[in-house]
Queue: 2 jobs
Job 1
Amino acid sequence: MSSNTGQQPAVTVLGLGPMGRALAGAFLDAGLRTTVWNRTPGRDQELVVRGAVGARSAEEAVAASPLTVVCVVDYDAADAILRPGAVTGALKGRTLVNLSADTPARARESAAWAAGHGIDYLDGAIMTPAPTIGTPDAVFLHSGPQDLYHRHRPVLDALGGTHTHLGEDPGRAAAYDIALLDIFWTAMAGYAHALALAKAEGVTARELAPFAQGIGAILPPLFEEFAEDVDSGGFSGAINPLTSAASSMAHIIHTSEAHGIDAGVMRATEGLARRAIGLGHGGDGFIRVAELLGRSAGK
Ligand code: NDP
């Protein structure tokens, strides 16, 4: 950034949880004039020591910069900050980038609200943890008007990592976020269950770790392979048909329940596999379940 001109771009960050602090810290490191505000006072102290301006109100914070980034727990929290009249009024004619996580529907509703109040609006999602911000590992997804995104891209680039504009539909970044976190949390549920099961069998988390990594490494190439299959309507079970997968799932359920461990997550998975088999798809691969689930959504 052009810190040597005395005319550094200015940016405001609303919300100073771990992620908001990381965003503001990256803007400061890039030499931007950074104004910060948080509902609970005092969370700005370290940032102010590093050169941020600590605003006394959200309205004052928004008025300090052409671009405001809001990053709080969800859109209820963002609305609580942004929708009081004084703050909405201060945002008029400026740009708001909402990097809080919520649903695609809330993102679209926020974009409509912003449009109704003369606020330029981009929605976004952050796909990596706070310590990655300002490093090449950070991953940001954006959606909303393309020209607006390109206009603010130089400031967003100060956050490091990769930035991808996914389209004009303001809900698109949240749609990717929801789908990707679906992968993450269901995988984490499987991992947590596996740790409990392994412990009951006398295997420590440390002992399991290298093999857990091996199983995890199988997944990334499958994402590529299944993307081809699913988009072209193919669900090949040549390597591992659903009948075989369901049998393997049943072993996990029996072992869990023999140890008195709740097998709910695996029961749900096995239930989906059995439903697909019942509908005559036993020779297909497990990913047939995606098509089955989509049927009830009419997609
Ligand atoms: P949290 O999700 O815990 O959010 C904390 C922030 O929300 C604080 O600034 C808090 O203010 C504010 N807040 C909560 N309720 C309200 C309210 N009613 N009115 C005003 N402000 C409110 O912390 P993070 O910073 O970690 O996350 C922010 C967003 O970033 C979330 O949507 C999260 O999903 C996303 N994210 C976070 C990642 C991470 O590694 N932390 C990774 C990727 C995405 P106060 O201090 O006053 O309570």
Note: Residues 10-168 form a domain with the Rossmann fold fold (CATH 3.40.50.720).
Job 2
Amino acid sequence: MTYIQNIMLQLLFALLPFVLFTIYYRDKPVNYSRNFITVTSCACLILSMTFPSTVETGFIFDIRYVIMFFGILFGGLPTGVTLLAVFLLYRLYLGGEGMLSAYTILIATFPLSILLCDWYHRAKERKQLIVFLAGISFSVIPLLILFIMETKYMLSHLSFHIMVMPVQNSLGIWLLISLFKKAAADKELFISYVHNERVQAISHVAASLAHEVRNPLTSVMGFLKLIRNPSLPREKVDQYIDVCTEELARMQTILSEYLAVSRPLGKHKEEIDLSEQIYAVTDVMTPYANMNNVKLVVEDIRSMSIRVESNRDEMKQLLINFIKNAIEACSDRHDGMVIIRLLASNHEAGLLIKDNGVGMSSEQIKRLGTVYFSTKSTGTGLGLTFSYQLIRSLGGRVNVRSEQGNGTEFVIRLPIAAAES
Ligand code: ADP
Ligand code: MG
């Protein structure tokens, strides 16, 4: 019975990185990082070594080989080396007779882990087989070395070793690797969904854009026909040319802003002017608002220079997500209106996006920013998931005030990089 308890406890430790991954990365549109793997593997290693399976003082059996293999597989060699250092130091601290054999076993299994991980990454198929092989090797090699180095001890506890080691290591490796791999693959899929939702949002906007561009085109065409008339006075010709130039310049702005928001998201962070971004995005979103019969009002913020540290494309995407939602919330009203206002305090930039649309219940407000929460028939609930995550990563926060039937007010607060007005 104690064998089973020991094994169960070790398997629980082995699942720790997987459990922490699903909790920590739940709503985040990013996948695991090397630091995450290193930290969780170290915690797991220390826990399993502190509460190991044991039959004789000084000899401890934990899931160190499982963790090493996992760490190298998902975190790479730097994680493996960190784990090795943690193991060597902690094992030295724990001491006992089994220390020498433990170090010897690790000298044999550590390079093997690196080789197997390399094989795993290069293999196109049969990855499961490599995991199985790793499980078997990390059960048999320690047993053999222990048998050679500590024959007497080994023989007196043979049943313990034959039962505990293979189950702990093979099952541990298989469980951890397959569950973690599945969770990471699901996350990858989720990230591509978030990307698709961006494409979808942009294609919605594109439909309204085509509408918006058609009107000025028609009027430019009309004016050009008028200018053809040789009897038209010179000042009239100049006036028409001015109108055409203005219309074409406006179209050019809208189209170039649209191209700017539809290109792939960059990663580079820089100091950006918030009001500049707002004007750029509202240029693109105005046609969408017009198509939905909603008035989009940007309160005069031209004189305000509020700078925040962010990636330009991501900030635009964030603004589009909030403004698009606000427009969609008002689309059934005849007097729909979306107001955008910038608020500045000493160390924070505030951006208010207010609409008089359908509003939300308190239940709905609580679920904002969580994965797949949407009340729209064709909605994805990924727009705000991305936006909330970005705001958090910039050290900001969001306040929401909403009343069903009476509209919604979002206030996004971001740390300021520099401000002058
Ligand atoms: P989607 O727009 O695809 O539904 P989002 O993540 O952009 O996904 O929004 C999630 C949900 O939040 C929406 O379905 C809607 O119910 C709610 N929501 C967001 N903004 C507003 C708003 N301004 N007014 C009312 N409801 C909103
Ligand atoms: Mg949306």
Note: The two ends are 73 Å apart (CA to CA).
